[in-house]
Every structure is written in C-alpha cells, then in structure tokens.
Amino acid sequence: MSGLRIVSLLPSATEIVAAVGMADHLVGRSHQCDFPVEVSRLPALSATKVNLDGTSRDIDMRVNEIIAQGVSVYRVDADLLRSLKPDVIVTQTQCAICAVTPGDLEDALCEWTGAAPVLVSLEPNDLSDVWGDMRKVGAALGTDAVAERAIAGLKGRLDAISATASRARYAPTVAAIEWMDPLMAGGNWMPELIEAAGGRSLFATAGQHSPWLEWSALAAADPDVILLLSCGFTIAQSLADMPLLQAHPEWAQLTAVRRGQVYVIDGHHYFNRPGPRLVESAEMIAEILHPDLFDFGHERTGWIRL
Q: Which DSSP symbol is given to 94?
C-alpha cells in the first residue's frame, strides 16, 4: 500500500512486517525492536519500567513488584506516537510482561484526533498461531500473497528439518529453560520446535504458556540435553546468570551437566520472538541435538556449549 505508515511495538511483529514486504513503511518501533538492523534508525516509542541490571532473580522480583501495584511494565510515548500519524499499529496480547499491550496504548488512542489507526493485536500460542499472525499482518497491510509465500517457505524449511531429523538414531529428552530463577520451562511453540528438530520435549505442552518448574521435577526427569534460552536474555546475559543454577546441589548431578550437554542460546533474538526466526531457532536445536545430521552455522553466534 503506497504511503502506508506502520508502527510495530513488538520485535516479532517488526520481523513479520519485514517478512511480508513492508519494512520500508515502518515509521516507529518498540525499544526492543532491532531486526532487521535497519529498524534501529526508527524512533523508539516504548521503554520498560524495570531495571534490567542484575540476575533473573532480581528482575523477577522487580517485575512482580510493579505488577502488584496494578500498573503496566511499560511506558509508551503517546505524544511521539501521535506525531508519527501511523495508519496501522501492531502490538500483542500474548504477554503483558514481554511487550507493550493494547492496554498500554489506551491513553494515546483515546486522545487521538483525526482518523484512528488500525490496531492489529497478535496472540500466538503455538506455531499455527504464528502463521496465522503473519496472515493477519499481511491482510492488514494488503500483502496477503507475500505473506502466504513467506509462510510456505518457513513451513517448508521446518518440514525439511523434521524429515532429516527422522533419520537420527535416537531422540534425546530436552529441557528448555526459559527462566533460570525461578525455573520456568519453555512452552507455547518451543515443544514443537524441539520435536521438529528430533528431540523429545519435557515439562511443557505445545500451545500452552510456559510453566514454572520445580527443581525436584527437573532432577527426576534428568534430561539428556538442557537448553538455556532465557526470555529477553542474550548469551552473555545467560552466562552471567549461571551461578544461580550452579548453586543448586541438584545441578551438578544432572546427566546433561555431567555429559556436557548444556547449551546457552540467544533467547532474546530467536526463541522468544514468535515470528520468522523461529525456523532459525529450530535449526539451532537440530544442530545441537544431531550434529552428525545438521550444521546451519549458528554455533557461537546463536548458541554455545556451556
């Protein structure tokens, strides 16, 4: 659509907008949107109220303190948003802790003058929802055909991974850890990615939110492989958090730890963004679980062995 002005307040939505061929129409972004790299030049419309310094335990405590006050975790620059005059705003309702929600936009929208922008709200719970969100964005932006081609390409890559993984001699049990303290297992689309890559997902169910995880349950399951992909954390941030896991007496006794099958992954840029790069996330799991079958070149940039 010629002249369309788009604001994305969610990193995965920004990546979806790019995938459906409309990156050049973005005029504003969230403070977390950083891919494609060109979006970094756009004005950031949001900010977090949470001090992100410290460990996952520290951050969890601060988030809970804000939520207990009944206020949002994010600030939205309503004046800047209105000045950009977007035709479409893309946001999400999946997680009020992860990104800006429609509720965070209420003040800006209720004081809008002129034609109000179209609000496209995404709520992905599993891979089929991610494809559905891509269709929703494509429909809102008038690029339905481009969206369908992008979806077909992504699904084809996943199918190819699954076909190759099916030749593996065994399917290791996998614990995906989405938060280190307190422990949380990776849910939603993550079990599907693990299964596609030739593993057996523990603790979480596809399509359901990430569950809290007891140390006793982790020890009892004793996974073959542990993937550390903390929500919003880069590899460096997760490495800094490792003492929280290593301090538990159960940690050193786990089979994955003893056999050197613990991997730290860039959850911030991949697994925690329900958009096109989930396929790259599946590639990472595949080359971790079955290095004899896969080598996509993500080691050291997307993941490392602990």
A: S
